Request: fold
Amino acid sequence: MKIAIIAIGKLARSPETELTKTYVERATNAGRSLGLGPVEVIEAESRKPGKAAEALALQPHLADAAKDGTWIIACDEHGQARPSRAFAEEIATLRDRGVRRLVFLIGGADGLAPELLAKASGKLAFGPQTWPHAIARAMLAEQVYRAVTILAGSPYHRDG
Reply:
């Protein structure tokens, strides 16, 4: 199952961007034997601000989602926060059900447009705090990597 983090905005070179890249590479390498990956980050740029314009920028990356086996999880403040093990189990369940592509959507400063939230099969929150987009990408990439390592049977410090 391919995994994509699709986010509004192109990030400049920064420690958060490098951290995201590191976790994406680790998740891709560790996930191969589990049928997970590659993991990729897709940055969509909107020519105008606002949810509607951002939805238009994200849409090409979701064009055939319904018919190509894509499962969409919207990153949204009203979503459900999941413990890492539950997040890993959700990814494994989707893979085992035959989902071909798992997409995590990260909107702009005002969040995702209602039509994208309606398209999503689930919503993921990063907790009650507000996070900068660069850090949200890094956190999501880290959680995908952590999920892969949990599914691979690596020791998880929260167990035991």
Notes: The domain at 2-67+80-151 is CATH 3.40.1280.10 (Alpha/beta knot). The chain has five helices and five strands. The radius of gyration is 15 Å.
